[in-house]
Amino acid sequence: MKKTIIIAASVLALASCAKVETIKQPTAGGRAINFGVYLPKTADTKAGTAGTITVDGTNGVDPDVIYTSLKAVGFGVFCTYSNGGNYDASIGPNFMYNQDVTYGTSSWEYAPVKYWPNETIDDHNGGIAPADADKLSFFAYAPFVGDTANKNEFIGSTTEGITGYTASTATTDPKIDYKVSTDPSKAVDLLWAVSGGLAYTDVHNTNVSVSAGYPLINLTKPSTSTVIPFMFKHATSRLAFKIQGAFDQVPAGGTQFGPTTVTVEQVRILDLAVNTAGTLNLNNTVANQPNWEGKTGTTTTLIVNGDKLNSTILDDGDGVQTEEGVTNVEKNLFADNKTFFTLIPNAVDDGDPLTDDDVATNVTVEITYYVTTPDGALHDQYSRIQNVIKKTISFPTGFYAGKSYTIKIILGLTSVKLEADVEDWAVGTIENVDLPQNK
């Protein structure tokens, strides 16, 4: 779902089909673990790499998003093997640790290939209880980031995006460390995997199922045709910005006259009440809700200027402007015309407005822009006026995970109108002067 906020003001308004890909099965004996990937309609993301993600880079539903293929960036898998029992976080990732799953020529691949444990309820004399069968529990995130030189703990960028994940020796659920980027071109939209409603019959005809929206845990050996699909969900919120002029009218649009150019120097989002860092536990306990832990920081300031701005509206400095500037047509505020900020959610959408955990969030937007008009009669050959406008708006529900929000900035410009009227001569008194006086 995409939400747009447009707040009118006299000068400034702040306004799939599912696709499953399977992993190639090895020719060796045994039963290999087969992964699948499923992204629901509108799933798009950016995580650890620039570009938003669908399975194959197509079927994007938002024209203002660059869709990058999950096949190009892959995903990471953590897996715990339970020897005769259910998932226990204290066991740690003893079967797969940040396993890089990539797309080859025609299928998903990983190495070394792992096989399902064979100890099931019929593999003992007299049988064993289903609860005592060997099980695998899978957790995944996307896109993949990794450090092959140090498998104990990955530390990537120390300032933004995915900054680390739990060590291979950890005795906890697998977790991803994350920090909000203040540069939209480096924003990281983190995904985590859940079940889409998995149900299958294992090799001994035992029904296995995982409720939709929960991690894929306690799975026993399936038949050879069964694929274990990951459904990736957004763990962050998305905040985009648009800009448009309102020329001689209140709503955006209108007729733009003459050579005047409206250009933007910077936009600041001041003291935004969201956490700046946190840890995503991949074992979510509420269906379809990211399990954020250890959130820190209470506010952040986001600044868009220089090469972060859309080049067609970027102010060139003193002088007649060479860019088109803000027009009566809506434009993306950001440089590549496609990026956005990603935020740690500060509210929870459980699907019921009566029970949603909403957090009304104020957003203060400040824009510095110039109105420049060429004028050969002036000493500098142009007029140039700086405007600094600030306005606070509110998102009543706060920011939900997996939701896109848009602030649309509408710059209201009223032309200076001149009219002329010549007053008629008034009739005064008439005095006669006879020089000389006739008689």
Q: Strand-residue fraction?
A: 35-45%
Overall geometry = elongated
Average predicted local confidence, pLDDT: 76
Q: Kindly, what is the distance between the CA atoms of the first and last residues, rounded to a whole number of angstroms? A: 103 Å
Helical residue percent?
A: under 10%
**Overall tally of structural domains:** 2
Largest sheet report: 9 strands, mixed
The structure class reads mainly beta
Radius of gyration, Cα only, in angstroms? Answer: 31 Å
Helix count from the secondary structure assignment:
1
Unreliable stretches? 4-29, 40-53, 58-67, 148-157
Order of helices and strands: EEEEEEHEEEEEEEEEEEEEEEEEEEEEE
Q: Strand tally, please?
A: 28
Structure description:
A hairpin with a 5-residue loop joins strand 14 (199-201) and strand 15. It is built from one helix and 28 strands. The N and C termini lie far apart (103 Å). Strands 3, 4, 7, 8, 9, 10, 13, 16 and 17 form a nine-stranded mixed beta sheet that branches. Helices cover 1% and strands 37% of the residues. The chain has one helix at 70-73; strands at residues 2-5, 12-14, 21-22, 35-38, 52-54, 67-69, 75-82, 96-103, 108-109, 135-142, 161-165, 175-179, 191-194, 199-201, 207-209, 216-219, 228-234, 237-247, 253-254, 261-272, 277-281, 291-296, 300-305, 331-332, 341-343, 361-374, 382-395, 404-413. By secondary structure, the protein is mainly β.
